[in-house]
């Protein structure tokens, strides 16, 4: 007999049993534990589980928050919705229950290693039913499944069977790294990009330091983080200092903060997760006034590519932002889909119209190109 249960803390779930549902995941039980302990303001965590007897057979992360419908809107549209939100906040903000995580790029739902592939669709449907029941108990009408890989037919079928609507999510950028050297990587780029990158490398660059502890520079890191966050239209969450320190402490050698120094001044940092298969770029914060003079973003990019080459890491997972640059830098893109449904039929029908305006590819041509690639 299968039983379904939602928990408010991942500490209620056995670490090994959880990780068995997500084999080889870098963002595993330890990462989720660090996120939970960080206390990200405005978010509460839910962990959806299915047990067969006492054995965990399927699991998913979920969260609740007050969601702004214009989170993916940019440019003129964003300025309009900002004014609208100040005047009538109830029109663009709704309580949200979402399967997935604000600090991972794709929907975190998995099944235990002994579960056969043919069982997965039914188990995902059970998790979705559990999410709807849990949301109703919490008094939340808007339910979503965040960033489902578009090739995941099982999730798509379960969501459509439950009358969820679909819209494009932010695509995930990746760079395969089969190169023998950074020069080999540069040779794979388009002529103008290759020439531009080599010109950038001829100028003096910052000193690079790889760290597993950042307590002594945490105020400067948070200053750079806040400055970078202020320039982003697409950020859903605001990360506290405890997120950065907690990730480094909880994951040990699987998490590193790369620091960029000009003399004694910290001008950029990059939090990355690493294993033998991939390097995941979690956040890059930098001093905008110095970025152009020292090409901080592109230098950090090449530092990460070089690390992958030297350690035989095949994949650089590089986030959901900066699509114009990432197209030039040779990335491929995994398209994601957002599924959603509101229990109130009137609001649900209204959202069918709203989604035409808030689609992320309506406001960023580079993002639209990344979505259309796959």
TrEMBL record:
| InterPro entries found in the cross-reference section | Acyl_CoA_acyltransferase, BioF2-like_GNAT_dom
GO MF: acyltransferase activity
One Pfam family per UniProt: Acetyltransf_6
Q: What class of enzyme is it?
A: transferase
Give start and end of each BioF2-like acetyltransferase domain. Answer: 192-295
Q: Give a yes or no for keyword Acyltransferase in this entry.
A: yes
Q: What is its EC number?
A: 2.3.1.-
Which keywords does this chain's UniProt record carry?
Acyltransferase, Transferase
Q: Which domain of life is it from?
A: Bacteria
The protein here is known as: GNAT family N-acetyltransferase
- Look up and give the organism this protein is from: Pseudomonas bubulae
């Amino acid at each position: 007999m299968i039983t379904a249960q939602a928990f408010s803390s991942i500490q209620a779930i056995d670490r090994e049993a959880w990780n068995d549902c997500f084999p080889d995941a870098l963002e595993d039980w330890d990462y989720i534990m660090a996120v939970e302990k960080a206390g990200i303001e405005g978010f509460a965590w839910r962990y959806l589980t299915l047990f067969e007897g006492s054995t965990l057979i399927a699991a998913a992360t979920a969260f609740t928050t007050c969601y702004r419908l214009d989170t993916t809107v940019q440019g003129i549209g964003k300025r309009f919705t900002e004014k609208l939100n100040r005047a009538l906040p109830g029109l663009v903000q709704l309580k949200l229950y979402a399967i997935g995580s604000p600090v991972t790029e794709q929907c975190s739902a998995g099944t235990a290693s002994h579960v056969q592939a043919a069982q997965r669709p039914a188990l995902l449907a059970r998790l979705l039913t559990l999410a709807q029941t849990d949301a109703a108990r919490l008094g939340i009408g808007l339910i979503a499944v965040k960033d489902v890989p578009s090739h995941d037919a099982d999730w798509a079928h379960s969501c459509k069977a439950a009358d969820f609507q679909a819209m494009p999510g932010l695509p995930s950028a990746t760079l395969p790294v089969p190169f023998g050297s950074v020069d080999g990587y540069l040779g794979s780029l388009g002529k103008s990009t290759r020439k531009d990158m080599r010109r950038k490398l001829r100028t003096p660059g910052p000193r690079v330091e790889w760290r597993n502890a950042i307590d002594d520079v945490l105020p400067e890191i948070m200053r750079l983080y806040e400055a970078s966050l202020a320039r982003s239209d697409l950020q859903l969450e605001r990360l506290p200092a405890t997120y950065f320190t907690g990730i480094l402490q909880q994951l040990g050698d699987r998490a590193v903060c790369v620091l960029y120094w000009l003399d004694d001044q910290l001008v950029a940092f990059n939090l990355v997760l690493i294993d033998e298969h991939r390097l995941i770029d979690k956040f890059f914060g930098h001093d905008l006034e110095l970025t152009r003079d020292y090409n901080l973003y592109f230098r950090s990019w090449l530092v990460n590519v070089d690390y992958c080459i030297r350690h035989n890491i095949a994949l650089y997972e590089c986030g959901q932002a900066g699509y114009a640059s990432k197209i030039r830098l040779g990335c491929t893109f995994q398209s994601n889909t957002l599924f959603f449904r509101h229990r109130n039929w009137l609001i649900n029908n209204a959202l069918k119209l709203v989604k035409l305006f808030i689609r992320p590819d309506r406001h960023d041509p580079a993002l639209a190109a990344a979505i259309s690639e796959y």
